[in-house]
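Could someone model flavin-adenine dinucleotide with this protein?
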Amino acid sequence: MLAYLEHFVHEKDAESRQDDEVASLSRALELQASIDELGPTGIASKDFGGIKSVKPLAMIRPSSAVDVARVVKAAAASPSLTVAARGNGHSVNGQAMAEKGLVLDMRALEEPFEIVWIEGTAYLDVSGGALWEDVLKRCVSEVGLAPRSWTDYLGLTVGGTLSYAGVSGQTFRYGPQTSNVTELEVVTGKGETLCCSLTQNSELFFGALGGLGQLGIITRARVVLQKAPDMVRWIRVVYSEFEEYAGDAELLVEEVEECFDYVEGFVLVNSDDPGNGWPTVRLDPEQVFDPIHIPSTAGPVLYCLELGLHYGNADDPSGGRVDMANLADVRVPTLPQIAKNPSFSGISKCQLLYHPLNTDVDRLLRRLRFIPGLKFQTDVSYTEFLLRVKRVEEHAKASGTWDAPHPWLNLFVSKSDIVDFDREVFKKILKDGVDGPILVYPLLRTKYVTINCTISWSSIENHKLFIVMVVPSYSLLLRTLSHPHLLPPRCIRPTLGVLLQSVVVPDSDIFYIVALLRFSPPPPKGPPPELLVAQNNEIIQFCTTRGLDFKLYFPHYHSREDWMKHFGKQWTRFVERKANFDPMAILAPGQRIFSRTS
Ligand code: FAD
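Reply:
Sure, complex below.
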């Protein structure tokens, strides 16, 4: 089979008898999968960014992890073939492409989709090619459960977002999506199919999370679930001063216990421009954004804090809500009871806190310094809330901006530099907007760290008990250690081995995600994409020359020096992991970090 593949590759280089050879490749690989979509018009040569296009050799639709492993092994046996897993192709710089290589359409991998219960916590075992929107719909409708951490838009695959981080308004509480999986099945660059977790093949586990697809192809992920709320109170409040906006947003995300369930925010142009300005704030067409409330001191841009509070209609018809955060976080063994019994009977009252919704919202909003008169709110179902960007997609498809080029820029900027960034970038370079959302909201660095915590506990009788705990953050570890019902703190001698995911973020404890989500119409109606790329570069240049503590999210670089700078002190470990799991650099060539070797 392998000799045949090499022959095939040489033939392909001569661009002859393409159709026959693709069929032969399928036979040679003994795949259950199908092979198709060759050429520059096929989806494998395109992505959401619409700026890069390269021609692969073939696109393969694997039906199982076995197919994925066969393809990788075959590529490894050839002199130069590479393999790119393609999730939903929502990259913007060709990261899921493979020039003259094999593209795996991961959406074809439908299984597994299975709820598993382990020691009182529910998990979803799901295919790396599943779309998050399908995960949401099936989990909520079939078992009333849902993942804790999301992205804003859910037309992305599980493996695609886990290869970066997966960030949204829940990240301040639960960490990115990469901090909410406990096990992966990965096909490495050697074609081995390995199960990995905190305690098994942990270098691969942490390396693959945020690993830009470099170490392996995620064929299955085990995602932590919690009870899905019924409803979300969705609120937007507007600020004219960045310092007040940022101060309030930081206050909210730091007080995880006493906070909304969702915290995000965006910049808007201080104008009635329908794409960039005031009309983007209302949550209901009936609501009015009255500019009379804007102080005369306001600058060229305003800031909108976007908040969400979960509640359950069915549980408390009077409009009260159950505070689930503690239960879900420390994973006390009542979670399955809660999931199976929506009325919560049989669960001790002291574990459930009932709050009237409006009192909660008022209490949380009272501390914030937004412009009085510029508060908007609505109530939507949990599913509708999480699918809110689907409506944007439909609108953009109708207007032609979904299929236009998207020169997006995503950055993480540290708290200490965000005021500088606001002054130069939001208020000057982007004062006219970007024809789409400009997100800016704080995240906590501790939520990106996963801890391997082995606690050795000596009892009075001098018996030793070893417990391995999986906790997604330092703060949760500290809370768990001091939890009176779990472990008596004075007896604990914790030894911590901190293992980092591959996700790269600034050093500061709080940093902001800044996302320029451009939806300009294609030229000649809109600006040429090159102009927008140049504006992105101007912003990166500003951050670099001013020495800001920042990192690119969805990084794309062309030189090894830039990649080394990006990874910083994580570079050596990343290179070692690459050498261990994909020594010939077969995987994810579109990231342009390593070159294929024989
Ligand atoms: P692809 O673009 O197909 O692949 C991305 C990279 O991952 C490639 O290198 C690919 O080879 C690799 N890869 C794909 N699947 C696998 C796998 N199974 N195993 C290993 N490697 C794999 N991101 C956020 O964090 N938060 C958001 O709110 C958010 N919103 C977005 C909204 C829109 C409209 C768009 C277009 C993007 C958004 N993103 C967001 C960015 C998104 O997370 C990334 O673009 C992500 O890569 C898209 O996933 P995908 O499934 O399309 O991956």
